[in-house]
Amino acid sequence: MKNTSLYIAAIAALSLTGTAQAKEKTMPPSTPATITTVYTRAGDINPKSFTVSVGQKVRFEVNSQDTGSGCMKEIMIQGLWNKPEPLVKGRPVVMEFVPQKAGTYRITCAMGVNRGTIIVK
Ligand SMILES: [Cu+2]
Fold first, then answer.
1. What string of H, E and C letters represents the secondary structure of 6-27?
2. What class is the 33-120 domain?
3. CA of 27 to the centre of ligand 1 (A)
4. Which of 14, 61, 70, 100 has the fewest CB neighbours in a 10 Å radius?
5. What is this structure's pTM?
6. DSSP label at 72?
7. Residue 70: is its pLDDT beyond 90?
8. CA of 44 to the centre of ligand 1 (A)
9. How many Å apart are CA 41 and CA 36, to the nearest integer?
10. If 0-12 CB within 10 Å is exposed, 13-18 middle and 19+ buried, where does residue 59 land?
């Protein structure tokens, strides 16, 4: 009787382990660290300083409450996202990248005017 109970316990433990492994396999290979900011014409982006890790996929979201104008109508990250993206009210900008080198990267307009920083550690 005792032996049978042990056997059942062992089978139960094995199948639990199997389930845990199956769950891991269905997870995306690299879940991005999401950082989010809000753009307004009066306050530009807020928050404007972020820290992320080398090698960790980052998802940077900019939620625009206004449509950008003039010099500051586009946003980019020097060295991480070099394509200027237009700031349009109600249309989130999403930039996904994997930082390869530690350092301080500038969030700017298309012409290079500072609006924030991403620190990669
Ligand atoms: Cu500009």
1. HHHHHHHHHHHHHHHHHHHHHC
2. mainly beta
3. 40
4. 70
5. 0.75
6. G
7. yes
8. 12
9. 17
10. middle
